[in-house]
Amino acid sequence: MDLFSFSSSAAMAQQTWELENNIVTMETPQSSDSDAIFHYDDVAQAKFQQDKPWANDPHYFKRVKVSALALLKMVVHARSGGTIEVMGLMQGKTDGDAIIVMDAFALPVEGTETRVNAQADAYEYMVDYSTTNKQLKNPSEKTLYKISSSLAWML
């Protein structure tokens, strides 16, 4: 098989996968508006958490946006597990009917082929990581970077 036919078949496989999974490529504007997705509004997030619109509609969330960094961390962690299950936490926020995953981190857990058990050290790690993450400051803007509470487990 020559290189040309391999690359064209890989491109076709990727296009097929993207069509079957409704993948939409997001165009990034070249202005400062592209960073708006990273803005965290305490008041809006608190109100959303209090209203809980997903409680009445189990299909409320229809879209997920995952940052490239979070995706890379999840893939590296999953690959490092080999055939053993892994566990980690995704962090982010909500925006209407979308869940925005901004970060992810691996948990120090012991896994087998059928289950992963989080012990006390994993829970302590989650708390320490989340607390430290909330304390990061941007020195140029004197504002606090915020990432919402944990969104979901990944296996």
Automatic annotation (TrEMBL):
Keyword field: Cytoplasm, Hydrolase, Metal-binding, Metalloprotease, Nucleus, Protease, Signalosome, Zinc
Molecular function, one GO term: metallopeptidase activity
Presence of keyword Hydrolase: yes
PROSITE patterns: MPN (PS50249)
MPN domain residues: 64-155
InterPro entries: JAMM/MPN+_dom (IPR000555), JAMM_MPN+_peptidase_M67A (IPR050242), MPN (IPR037518)
Gene3D superfamilies, per the entry: Cytidine Deaminase, domain 2 (3.40.140.10)
Localization: Cytoplasm; Nucleus
GO biological process entries: proteolysis
Gene Ontology terms: cellular component: COP9 signalosome; cytoplasm
KW Membrane (keyword) present: no
Recorded family membership: Belongs to the peptidase M67A family. CSN5 subfamily.
Protein name listed in UniProt: COP9 signalosome complex subunit 5
Organism field: Escallonia rubra
